């Protein structure tokens, strides 16, 4: 379940409440007149099944509430309520499969910024991977993949393409391309520094490396892994099940390939530079295509489900308010009563 807290300007509360009531999968509607001070208006709170959340949020944005008021969304970890259970049963689909597009845009926008923290994590991940490829150490490669933050911009590009958000696409591409450029340049310098200390050698890089040689030898399996990783990554992000293991899958041949190319560049081994760069580009392309197609598929599925819900409502389906018993319905104050209550300091739920 999701909990929505809405700050509604004066005169718009009835429209907002109607939008909530006609949404299948809502419960616990509360209206507190005059509770909001900035903007001046009412506070509306409601719980909604996750699978119905995107429809309700879209309707509220259609009323301009995101511009004139506020829409805050929180996940409910535990809700002991028969009404909530009934709302989730009535909502179409499964909550774990639902996509909140506004939330997805917000998350990818935040994680696809070319910030100092993003550059630091990507550079550190690439340097750790550089140690891994030179030492042919799979443990270091896995550690580097867990640290790499590059899935944020990749998801941002996918989301921007599906949602037609050019600003998000540009921001994500700048973070992706600029981040790898900076990380690889610093890792090349890091490799030369390690060589001066005798910790890296050209012989180590060019030796037979059974555990990491795949990083600079792209083959059909590279594309297969990239596609599977792209699908897994987007599903985990849209279902709020993202974690370190997903990061590992996404980075399987991105950060390590960038690291191998950077170290090889320092030694002038252009065969490995081109091989690693090809591996990097192939996997980035595979992840982007697979991630975008995954989002398109999810959007088509949920658009169809939303259409079925609306058709059901047009054929006489009752909203939450109509299904409740008269004595259980929340009364909404008339404008005159609202003003008198506000003036007297009464903020009881209505």
Write structural notes for this entry.
The chain is elongated. Mean pLDDT is 82; it is low at 316-350. By secondary structure, the protein is an alpha+beta fold. 42% of the residues are buried. Strands 2-3-1-4 form a 4-stranded antiparallel beta sheet. The protein is 64% helix and 10% strand. The chain folds into 2 domains: 2-97 and 318-344, 2-Layer Sandwich (Alpha-Beta Plaits); 102-302, Up-down Bundle (Glycerol uptake facilitator protein), CATH 1.20.1080. Helix 11 packs antiparallel against helix 12. It contains 16 helices and 4 strands. The protein has helices spanning 13-21, 50-62, 65-68, 82-90, 101-111, 116-135, 138-147, 151-163, 166-196, 202-206, 220-238, 244-250, 255-267, 270-314, 320-323, 335-344; strands at 2-9, 26-37, 40-48, 70-75.
Name some characteristics of this structure:
four-stranded antiparallel β-sheet, Glycerol uptake facilitator protein, 64% helix, 350 residues, Alpha-Beta Plaits, alpha+beta
């Amino acid at each position: 379940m999701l909990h929505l807290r809405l700050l509604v300007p004066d005169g718009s509360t009835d429209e907002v409440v109607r939008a909530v009531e006609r949404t299948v999968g809502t419960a616990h509607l509360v209206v507190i007149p005059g509770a909001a001070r900035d903007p001046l208006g009412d506070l509306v709170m409601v719980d909604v099944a996750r699978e119905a959340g995107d429809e309700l949020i879209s309707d509220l944005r259609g009323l301009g509430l995101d511009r004139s008021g506020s829409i805050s969304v929180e996940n409910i970890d535990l809700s002991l309520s028969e009404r909530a259970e009934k709302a989730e049963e009535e909502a179409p689909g499964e909550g774990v499969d639902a996509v909140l597009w506004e939330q997805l845009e917000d998350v990818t926008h935040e994680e696809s910024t070319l910030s100092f923290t993003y550059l630091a994590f990507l550079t550190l991940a690439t340097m750790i991977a550089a140690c891994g490829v030179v030492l042919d150490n799979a443990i270091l490669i896995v550690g580097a993949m867990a640290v790499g933050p590059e899935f944020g911009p990749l998801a941002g590009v996918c989301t921007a393409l599906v949602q037609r958000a050019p600003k998000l696409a540009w921001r994500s591409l700048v973070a992706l391309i600029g981040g790898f450029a900076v990380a690889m340049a610093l890792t090349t310098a890091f490799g030369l520094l390690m060589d001066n200390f005798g910790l890296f050698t050209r012989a180590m890089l060019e030796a037979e490396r059974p555990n990491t040689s795949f990083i600079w030898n792209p083959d059909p399996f590279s594309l297969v892994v990239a596609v599977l990783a792209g699908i897994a990554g987007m599903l985990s992000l849209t279902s709020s099940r993202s974690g370190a293991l997903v990061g590992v899958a996404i980075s399987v041949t991105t950060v390590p390939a960038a690291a191998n190319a950077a170290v090889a560049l320092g030694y002038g081994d252009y065969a490995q530079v081109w091989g690693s760069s090809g591996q990097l580009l192939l996997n980035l392309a595979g992840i982007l295509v697979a991630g975008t197609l995954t989002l398109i598929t999810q959007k088509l599925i949920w658009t169809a489900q939303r259409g079925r819900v609306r058709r059901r409502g047009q054929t006489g389906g009752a909203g939450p308010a109509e299904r409740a018993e008269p004595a259980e319905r929340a009364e909404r104050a008339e404008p005159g009563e609202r003003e008198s209550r506000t003036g007297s300091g009464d903020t009881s739920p209505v």
